[in-house]
Amino acid sequence: MRNIKTTTIINEAKRLLIEASFNLPCDVMETVKSAVKKEISERARKILELVLENAKIAKKQKLPLCQDCGLVYIDLDIGPDICIKDSSSLNSLLNQAVADTYTSNYLRKSIVSDPLYERKNTSGNTPAVIHTSFTSSPGLHIKIYLKGGGSENCSYLYMLNPSTGEDEIIELVLDVVKKNVTKCCPPVIVGIGVGGTSSEVVKLARTASFRNLEIRNPDKRYRQLEEKILKVINETGIGPQGLGGKTTALACNIEYAPCHMASLPLAVFMSCHSTRRADSKISPP
Questions:
Q1: CB contact at 8 A, 137 and 77
Q2: How confident is the model at residue 284, as a pLDDT?
Q3: Are 28 and 250 in contact (CB under 8 A)?
Q4: DSSP string of 176-199, one letter each residue
Q5: What digits encode the pLDDT tens for the residues 79-136?
Q6: Quick one: CA torsion of 55, 250, 108, 19, rounded to 10 degrees?
Q7: What is each CA distance from 192 to 125, 137, 165, 185, 200, in whole angstroms?
Q8: In a designed cystine with 139, which of 41, 232, 271, 283 is the match (CB 3.0 to 4.6 A)?
Q9: How far apart are CA 140 and CA 273, in angstroms?
């Protein structure tokens, strides 16, 4: 068993928060570049080029990729060889790291403490949504995701009849995209969760929407479904920023899990073109 100090995790979390805020992931950049070459609409190409220019400026000048600096998700995958010293205080320290990073880097703080009545800003962009899981992979994998309010508002959960087929799911997702995609700054990444439970499927969809675009679903059936959904979405002609074109979505990613035989949960979780994420693995000496 190897020890990792909480200070090591906190310092890495701060670094990843900064990286995610100012740097568009390379796979997203490359997908946008590819879309520019495929676009036939001059307006759409111009918008995609502005997305790339925005990313270059953000990285060079250490400016947020978007004025909405997002709600923070933190996932910690802890391997079997890891012991975290003072782990009881880890969540509170991670939240303090978020508050410190957002303050010191002049990032907009968007979290309100009471969702219904006071809606008072917490002044630190906290609390973050923190998930901890134990894995068979060695070391500690820390993943940071930032999610803006516009795309967050375009998230949907459905409890479908188990007899629902592939074509019906395609039509359902397409309908969600048609009604909502212009609210979350397309081109988007469509994350879909299938199976699990009503609570688990939303997490699956969130995981899918933040998945590296170079990674396709290992199951051939779900990989083909990803391709079919992406195709019909881009055939709508909605395009970048809803102004027409072939690139309404950059990708469609699906994650799935076993579910009860009486149910078929499905969740759709869209991410905007500023899909912000950063991760790293900490291997103790």
A1: yes
A2: 73
A3: yes
A4: HHHHHGGGG-SSEEEEEEEEE-HH
A5: 998 999 878 899 999 999 999 999 999 999 999 999 999 999 999 999 999 999 999 9
A6: -60
A7: 27, 25, 15, 18, 12
A8: 283
A9: 28
Full-model pTM: 0.95
Give the pLDDT mean for 205-227. Answer: 97
What is the spatial distance between Cα 61 and Cα 181, in angstroms, rounded to a whole number? 29
| pLDDT of residue 285 exceeding 80 | no
Q: How far apart are the first and last CA of the chain?
A: 11
Q: What is the mean pLDDT of residues 49-63?
A: 98
Q: In sequence order, what are the residues at sequence separation of 6 or more whose Cβ sits closer than 8 angstroms to the Cβ of residue 161?
A: 264
Cβ pair 145, 135 in contact under 8 A:
no
Q: For 230-259, how does the pLDDT look when each residue is reduced to its tens digit (9 = 90+)?
A: 999 999 999 999 999 999 999 999 999 999
| Mean pLDDT within 20-29 | 98
Angstrom CA distances, 176 to 81, 154, 157, 161, 268, stand at 43, 8, 11, 18, 8
Tell me if 276 sits within 8 A of 64, measured CB to CB: no
Residue whose tokens read 């992931």: 25
Q: What domains can you pick out in the chain, each with its CATH number? A: 2-29+63-148+277-282 (3.30.360), 149-275 (no CATH)
Q: How many alpha carbons lie under 13 Å from residue 158 in its C-beta half-sphere?
A: 18
Q: In this structure, what token pair is assigned to residue 152?
A: 């967050």
Q: Which residue's structure tokens are 């397309």?
A: 186
Residue 87 makes CB contacts below 8 A (sequence gap 6+) with: 6
DSSP letter at 271 equals: E
Among candidates 242, 31, 255, 266, which has minimal Cα distance to 170? 266
* Those residues with Cβ within 8 angstroms of residue 155's Cβ, 6 or more apart along the chain or in another chain: 202, 205, 267, 268, 269, 270
Is the pLDDT confidence value at 221 over 80? Answer: yes
